[in-house]
Give the backbone structure.
Amino acid sequence: LNGIVISLGLGSVSVMPGFAAFPLCAALKGEGVPFYIIAAFSLSLMNVGIVTFPIEKKFLGFSIALIRNLIALIICIIAVIMVKIIFGE
């Protein structure tokens, strides 16, 4: 559980394009990191935007930006649970 929370947190506060994130995830897998941790990091990296929240707030409004980020985080958590179950890790 700690690994999931840490990877979700790191992914949420990072900003990285996909063409850099996927090789990083491959390198993490090469080091033996479980798939569900990599899924938590990469999904939150692409979907949850703590760093980009001020821009979203400016264009979408505070409540919409907050709801979008919360829904993205919930979807990430559900996907991580599914990956953990499917891969049996």
Notes: Residues 62-87 form the longest helix (26 residues). The mean pLDDT is 93. DSSP finds five helices and no strands in the chain.
